Amino acid sequence: MNVVILDGFSVTQHDLDWRALNGELADVRLTVYPRTTPGETIARCEDADAVLTNKVVLSADVIAALPQLRYIGVLATGYNVVDLDAARRRGIIVTNIPAYSTDSVAQLVFAHLLNITHSVAHYAAARSRWPSSPDFLWMDTPLTELAGKTFCVYGFGNIGSRVAQIALAFGMRVIAVTSRASDLLPIGVEKVEWESALAQADVLSLHCPLTPATRAMINAATLERMRPTAILINTGRGPLVDEQAVADALAANRLAAYCADVLSTEPPAPDNPLLTAPRCFLTPHIAWATREARQRLIAIAVNNLRAFAAGEPVNVVNG
Predict the structure, then answer these.
(1) What is the pLDDT of residue 25?
(2) 296 and 100 in contact (C-beta within 8 Å)?
(3) Mean pLDDT score of the chain, rounded to an integer?
(4) Measured distance CA(275)–CA(279) in Å, rounded
(5) What does the alpha-carbon distance between residue 203 and residue 252 come to, in Å, rounded to a whole number?
(6) CA dihedral of 224, 239, 256, 284, whole degrees rounded to 10
(7) Are 269 and 243 in contact (CB under 8 A)?
(8) CATH dotted code for 2-100+291-309
(9) Which of 60, 120, 242, 245 can pair with 220 through a Cys bridge, CB separation 3.0 to 4.6 Å?
(10) Nearest one of 53, 9, 21 to 69, comparing CA atoms
(11) Enzyme catalytic residues
């Protein structure tokens, strides 16, 4: 089997490799490209039986130009980089990597939240001012205790449910906007409607897929209905929010803080309004990228390909 990985460096970085794929599967000829531009995709895949991609797009036109292709492995949970209908028409199996980064993403949600409530980065950077304090402590910002505050989770899949569990451990009141029935939610999690969530949330964390219904779900109108003291966290998808509306709300002090690990375009355009917005804390799409999560991703990718080679594919998203 001729296997091509189009953007392998995003997964391996400097501390992992793809040797497991060669070691686990017999008769594999593996070619790994660290990055692939759109103009290079077809030429690099023309002899491939299987293609693995993280963010390189495999459109209908690309798929049509690859008659030998039988398998596409998406190296992520989201699979919008592949035209599933085009693959289905060709009989190409498409798989994804589910639930590999749940704990890592949930961890970053609270890294952001704790940074805001205790101004961790601010005080660490200002450590040189402590020696001149007339008191045993030095502080110039208000600090916030999480216990008793209302934490809203929008979307209650693997990550959303893990985030809710951690919020409960902090002693927070947890509410959820979800399609799940109330009696299927964990003890301590209350199901609410969207309008109620906007009005109640001290922290609103987004964990839903990007769909036509959720695109720009956070906009000028919804921001007006949120508390001006609320903290908004987005580790889902950048386009879940209207970025200009969020920047405007921050500038007008109608939102306490915005934390995001995702933006509408990545890397962001230099004129993205969030890059210069006050109280906006951005991380460069790293929530999923702990070494442990990337190791799981590679292991699942290898197992997906092994199952396909054995004629029993798993984690199929276009079945």
Answers:
(1) 75
(2) yes
(3) 96
(4) 10
(5) 19
(6) -170
(7) no
(8) 3.40.50.720
(9) 245
(10) 53
(11) 237, 266, 285
Fold match between domain 2-100+291-309 and domain 102-282: yes
Tokens 């070691």 found at: 23
Residue 130 confidence (pLDDT): 96
Would you kindly state where each structural domain of the chain is located, as residue ranges? 2-100+291-309, 102-282
Predicted confidence at residue 186, as pLDDT, reads 96
Q: What angle do CA 61, 66, 72 make, to 5 degrees?
A: 90
How deeply is 270 buried, as exposed, middle or buried, from its count of CB atoms within 10 A (0-12, 13-18, 19+)? exposed
Rounded-to-integer distance, Cα 53 and Cα 160, Å:
25
pLDDT value, residue 26: 73
**Low-confidence residues of the chain, pLDDT below 70?**
24
64 vs 82: CA distance, rounded Å: 12
**Tokens linked to 204:** 């609103």
Per-residue HEC secondary structure of the chain comes to CEEEECCCHHHHCCCCCCHHHHHHCCCCEEEECCCCCHHHHHHHHCCCCEEEECCCCECHHHHHCCCCCCEEEECCCCCCCECHHHHHHHCCEEECCCCCCHHHHHHHHHHHHHHHHHCHHHHHHCHHHHHHCCCCCCCCCCCCCCCCCEEEEECCCHHHHHHHHHHHHCCCEEEEECCCCHHHCCCCEEECCHHHHHHHCCEEEECCCCCCCCCCCECHHHHHCCCCCCEEEECCCHHHECHHHHHHHHHCCCCCEEEECCCCCCCCCCCCHHHCCCCEEECCCCCCCCHHHHHHHHHHHHHHHHHHHCCCCCCECCC
pLDDT tens digits for 194-220? Answer: 999 999 999 999 999 999 999 999 999
Contact call for residues 80 and 104 (beta carbons, < 8 A):
no
Residue in this structure with the two tokens 């890059």, named with its chain if needed: 275
